[in-house]
Design goal:
281 residues; alpha/beta; 5-stranded parallel β-sheet; Rossmann fold; Arc Repressor Mutant, subunit A; two-stranded antiparallel sheet; 9 helices
Amino acid sequence: MYPQTYLKTFWRLELRSQVFVAMSFAPQYEARFKEIIAPAIQSIVLEGSRLEPYRVDISKSGDSILTDISDGIAHSRLVLADISSIGKDSVTGLPYRNGNVMYEVGVALACRQPSEVLLVRDDHDKFLFDVSTIPHVTINFTNKRAAVQTLAEQILSRVNEQQFINDARVQIAISSLSAEEIILLKQMQEYSANMVWGREVKGLANWYALAISRLLDKGVIKLAGEFKKNKPAFAFTPFGYIVHQVVNSGLCKFEAKMPEPPAEALPETGDEAQQNDGADA
């Protein structure tokens, strides 16, 4: 399945405790992965879970590998790409980087924030202009201990930056909630993160149906399956459960006041007429 099709139809932002690793599968790079990249990733524990490296199995082909790439990039906490130069062009003499890795970087930049993509390299060759603004670091992979430490620090820095972005995303979602959505979230105050729920919908214009539709669009909830009699079953997304908790912890309160009765229209005085004439002029 091509990335565009996958991202438009199946993707919902649920991040796993993993880092998607895009790098050359050539045998000479295997030690770099096992001795530096993997240990650096596994040294970080987030929300009680240790991060794990995830590489797509190169034995797959066609739609299978494209779907795995899209799924891994979309659902990993971070995308780490080793874009080190792998050779020089025989005609121009200019260095070039792994084409498969650059493809995965392109997919990552199409569906993730720049702060969720980290580029590493072991060279000082001229950087490509289209990825020069993406966070990147040059690492000396020959010094294994220093390389592991540097890479772990960079990964943790990116993850911390993501937290600020996610906080902003939560606030944006809350600020756009409708009255129906707020009522529904408050009715589910006691629901846990893993609870599956649903109710019978009577009429497409039912307030519950409207609230469900909007919460699905925002990625606050997801379709988990269905109960008997074909009644849909829903569950919170990890992002949505945070929104749910914030709403039920207490939104900003305002004291409702009765609106003032409209003042009777008064005829314009000469001075007011002159001011209006001047404004119109």
